[in-house]
Amino acid sequence: MLNIQDIRKDFPILSREVNGKPLVYFDNAATSQTPQQVIDAITSYYSGYNANIHRGVHTLSQEATDLYEQSRQKIQAHFNAKFSHEIILTSGATDSINLVANGFSSLLKKGDEIIVSALEHHSNIVPWQMLCERTGSVLKVIPMNADGELVMDEFDNLLSKNTKLVFVNHISNALGTINPIEYIIEKAHAVGAAVLIDGAQACPHVKPDVQALDVDFYVASAHKMCGPTGVGMLYGKEAWLNKLPPYQGGGEMIAEVTFEKTTYADLPHKFEAGTPNIAGGIVFGTAIDYMNAIGFDNIAVYEHELLEYATEKLTAIEGLKIYGTSKHKTSVISFNLDHIHPYDVGTILDKLGIAVRTGHHCAQPIMDFYRIPGTVRASFAFYNTKQEIDALVEGVKKAKMMLS
Ligand SMILES: *Cc1c(COP(=O)(O)O)cnc(C)c1O
Fold first, then answer.
1. Residue from 96, 122, 123 to probe ligand 1 pocket by mutation (most atoms less than 8 Å from CB)
2. What integer is the mean pLDDT of 382-391?
């Protein structure tokens, strides 16, 4: 059992007010809040050992380099990667996806096929479309059903010997659906295709084991798992990372440079050109430590409780429709009130100090499927409470009264 009131004390922002009301933060799927432990780790980097890494002989540089590399090892352990050099530190999930999409430009040819899903975030659609334009490959889409689940029979039909890559998110940010990635990985491998799983929305809720999944690439962002913005990771199997060409040229990613020829550094540095987000990389490890101390099993149990509680209370409001009703979902509720624009609901909730997301949540194809402009999305984290959900329910009732 988690002591939520104690946990909340770790998050200074949770005690602020918005528009004269206590903040109720239900936009966790866009970014999570930051515990004091992570804030302190950022401060101690800048006040104690700020220096560029991997290059200086001096003490500060060595201290910073050691902590940066220790953080990489924490990330490796968390995701159970075989080697720490299979963890590439990037600026976020989007950057990680673009790195892979760019790398595949030289490996694909006309007529090759790439499969994505109808539930993707734009950052897992657009890079592949750009890749198809560059290579003449074809994009195929796994369709979804009304519950917001992927239709696996259709996926089976899309697979062929032309399938080279499959890209699916682990958990949908717009609806909360948990996708059957084990099945997808197994089927894709059976036709010889590589699989990238976008775990940006999953990592705040579950602890993926990349070796057990046998996944080729897995990506995440620190800022959705209690870390800072501007840092994320790409896990790639060693053999794939060796096969992909470098993404960006610059310092740190080279072995030797002459004007005739440049040779590239070994993994992971081959993909880490230039000065990275050093503080971010170091405290990504602090954030992972923080979440593991709370425990992903505890988080799953408690968030499921919040999800069930909120689903029941919100469903009782007449004219409220929830989008995304899979049995396998995390603590995300996307909804609309009859004939009321989501933006108007979000604006009234903000006046009451309640932060929700409104709009298409970077997943326009899902909104098109339901023929709606967008939804109101409330997404819960382990530091949220049932009292806060009560405040949301009251707020939605108020919005309904004012707007209908
Ligand atoms: C947030 C999110 C992304 C993008 O992450 P960035 O941190 O903005 O790069 C990609 N996919 C999913 C499913 C997300 O939730």
1. 123
2. 98
